[in-house]
Amino acid sequence: MTKTLNVAMIGGGFMGKAHALAYAAMPMFFWPAPAIPHRKVLIDVNADLAAEGARRLGFDESSSDWKAVIARKDIDVVDIVTPNDSHAELAIAALEAGKHVICEKPLARTGAEARTMADAAQKSGVMHMVAFNYRRTPGVAMAKKLIEEGRIGTILNFRGTYLQDWSADPNGPLSWRFQKKIAGSGTVGDIGTHVVDFARYLVGEISAVNAMVHTYVKERPLQSGGLDKLGASDKSGAGPKAEVDVDDEMITLLRFQNGAVGSIEASRNAYGRNNFLTFEIHGTKGSIAFNYERMDELQVMFADDPADARGFRTIYTGPNHPYGQGLWPIPALGIGYGETKIIECYDFFKAIVSGQLPSPNFEDGYKVSAIADAIIESGSSERWVQVAN
In this structure, is the dihedral angle defined by the CA atoms of residues 59, 60, 61 and 67, taken in order, positive or negative? Predict the structure, then answer.
């Protein structure tokens, strides 16, 4: 009989909706499921928000006392979908209580903070995962498979971008994502870490960075109400404003430990780009290119193709590709953000049942945070910076 695991989720906003959807849908897509996620308790900052979130997202109960819920013996999994400044306290407490923990990215505001979480995870003996869900897009997983099979040979170069425009308007409100004390960094931690995760997943460990980091909008209107208003705008610009103390854009060169080189550009001020998350990888036997805005497609080119057929071809991901057995029956039928979260949920619950640590786990989360620290330091010092081990 398939085991049921009770989930306590802390946070009921946008990411809470994505995670709750995954808990409900995962057994529908991947059956028999490794375990059945049961949405037990939704925790939020006050009783009213928690109760509303529980009703909306399908949880049995609600609470504003996360410490009491984490201590409960009937809770198996703690899911952290809160702003970055609370990740460490919540995750360490849950790990010490013997709960399996999945935490939204970035793992922490700094590498030092992430190190404390990774150390607690290592001591706990339970499963832990960082929610870098984009790597679970079937096209990205297929790229990993091709690389591991040697289809593009030795990797020479990685080029990644993550461009958005939701914060390009200077009258967009001062979300917590623009405040260093809460977020830790701006574009670097918010979206740049997704590309860093791609780079580590597909190419290998990054040893050094040389970056430019810039803030375009120095102040923003104060936000009213408790909900984060991503992409909103106060066109009047008449209200009170406060300082933005994080980065809007970063560009960095990369050195990989295996000798490959690369670059990453990330910006939340790129008008016309919605969720332009891309990578292109060149090897001694071919190339791979991916664009999340066309997430059912993977572009590949192999150097041993006939001379009259050389060039990129399109693979439309479907049932013959990674995770395809649980998704839709024909290629290019279409998947979305929700499916990447469903796959993430499947892999996490499979790890819990098997006892095999998933990837990316808290140690991976620390390494990504250490790279983010190095990018920030390099942007300030204008020199190459070695990534901390």
Answer: negative
